[in-house]
Amino acid sequence: MVKKTLSDIEVSGKRALVRVDFNVPLSEDQEITDDTRIRAAVPTIQHLLESGASVVLMSHLGRPKGSAVPEMSLAPAAVRLSELLDIEVELVPDCVGSFVEERAAALLPGQVMLLENLRYKPEEEANDPDFAKALAGLGDLYVNDAFGAAHRGHASTEGIAHHVPVSVSGLLMEREITYLDGTLRQPARPFVAILGGAKISGKIEVIENLLDKVDALIVGGGMSYTFFKAMGLEIGVSLLEEDRIQVARDIILHCSERNVELILPIDVVVADRFAIDAQTQVVNRDSMPAEWEGVDIGPATRALYSERVSQAGTVVWNGPLGVFEMEPFAQGTLSVAQALVQATERGTISIIGGGDTAAAVTQMGLADGMTHISTGGGASLECMGGRILPGIVALSDKENA
Fold first, then answer.
1. Residues 221, 319, 322, 355: which is the catalytic one?
2. Are residues 110 and 67 in contact, defined by beta-carbon separation less than 8 angstroms?
3. Sheet holding 267-271: strands in order across?
4. How far apart are CA 49 and CA 40, in angstroms?
5. Of 53, 79, 103, 291, most Cβ neighbours within 10 A?
6. E strand or H helix that includes residue 342
7. What is the arithmetic mean of pLDDT over 41-47?
8. Where are the beta strands (DSSP E) in 20-130?
9. Is 43 helix (H, G, I), strand (E, B) or coil?
10. Is 182 tagged catalytic?
11. Quick check: is 137 catalytic?
């Protein structure tokens, strides 16, 4: 899918309607606890402003279920964006209607306004055509820079494209497509995928899609214990998906049939209870004690995974390798992330597939050492799983592509 981008259009003197992803976490007192997604949208907004456009931004936040929930207002996002751009960003109290239309029409080149939470309206998630048309009327052109919402066929991500003259990807969306679509199609080899997190069930599509592409599949996190069970190993009281044991067996078989190296933990950090101050020990994977649970990959596994990463041409990683939220059980994720940073410095393409993995490497101060960190958890998973994302399909095709 070769889609039009900002470089394909003239924006001077035009009003750009930009879908951004300001779905940021808020504390109880409405403070933004992580502004990554807002900062990620700044390059596109600045490009438009510097090119002589005015900008109307739209986003959702949380799940207000079609009603105005004050705690899910985009007001904190407007304040933070004002600080980042060093200009006033007006938050209008609605996203459609005559007042919003008047405020949009009054915008001058170089000015920005932000619509209130799109999901205050049930028509947004229903992809209502009239609502999409009303949104489209607020701009001269449409820019989608919200990769995190690209897997949703909503009015602001898909429906709107049917009512504007041109729909293009923003700089962030373009980068996401380049790495999560383009790189997966033609990866530098060896191509290694790291999959972790709690469950196999959320990643079955991803695994099936990647098995035709990767040279090696590294598995860690809670999902590895279901693989152990499929191999006939005892796992104590570790996380287990009973209904996915056969799926794990099938994956093991498919890896063998397709000459994909399946790399599972060879040793494990186990704890006597799920707590930060629990007693721990390192055991081989075939010696897990009955009343203990796995919480991280062991030191021998860290060395093995780090070695494989250091030899890779491309690494895609989705899902932490242990309970990284608890510092004693974050060492596996940290060790492999450090190895990946070093590999990236030597030329490896490193792609972090959003969600908890992005949070982990950011928390560890290693985000800047990766080639690309996706802003979309669910969207990146679906893209890696080979799905076509509605928000990308809706964009205008590039001529002669």
1. 355
2. no
3. 280-284, 267-271, 293-297
4. 16
5. 53
6. helix 331-345
7. 97
8. 54-58, 89-91, 112-114
9. helix
10. no
11. no
